[in-house]
Amino acid sequence: MNLTHIEHLGIAVKSLETAIPYYESVLGLKCYAVEEVAEQKVKTAFLKVGQTKIELLESTDPEGPVGKFIEKKGEGIHHIAFAVPDVQAALDEAESKGVKLIDKAPRGGAEGLNIAFLHPKSTCSVLTELCMPGK
Ligand code: CO
Predict the structure, then answer these.
(1) Average pLDDT for residues 66-82, to the nearest whole number?
(2) Whole-angstrom Cα distance, residue 50 to residue 55?
(3) Distance CA 127, CA 132 (A)
(4) Distance 93 CA to ligand 1 centre (A)
(5) Do 44 and 53 meet the contact criterion of CB atoms below 8 Å apart?
(6) In 56, 74, 119, 135, which residue has its Cα 20 to 30 A from 64's Cα atom?
């Protein structure tokens, strides 16, 4: 599938206001962007470690995907996002290998990325995002 690196880790938090100070004051990272992604019912905050980002996800709706995740599992790692050169090609390859897809085609995510998710049923329970810069 030609993964190039871990683009980001998505971490579900109850409150960005509580989480960001931990990442900044304890881990010494810098939050460089906060963005609401209405379609996914989340507010996101981004920090960078080398070339990998940490994407903190606060739900804006209990019925949204992150709201439901926190209700079921509590705060914690929500997904891993791999960079690929071509999301659609990677999706097609995954599907041809029997992987269940959440997204059949890439859609817009935070930071202008084109993103798509593989279903955790097919990925040893790790929600897996494939992404590349948007055009
Ligand atoms: Co993500």
Answers:
(1) 97
(2) 14
(3) 17
(4) 20
(5) no
(6) 135
State in Å: Cα 79 to ligand 1 middle: 7
CB 42 within 8 A of CB 69: no
Instruction: Name 76's bridge partners.
Output: 12
Q: Residue 47 burial (CB < 10 Å; 0-12/13-18/19+)?
A: buried
Percent of the chain scoring above 90 in pLDDT: 91
Ligand 1 centroid to Cα of residue 111, in Å, is: 10
Ligand 1 centroid from CA 96, angstroms: 23
Which one-letter amino acid corresponds to residue 36? Answer: E
What are phi and psi for residue 30, nearest 5 degrees? -125, 125
Protein residues placing their CB within 5 Å of the ion ligand 1? 10, 55, 81, 129
pTM of the model: 0.93
How far does residue 40's CA lie from ligand 1's centre (Å)?
Answer: 10
* Residues making up the chain, counted from first to last: 135
Pairwise CA distance, residues 54 & 23, whole Å? 9
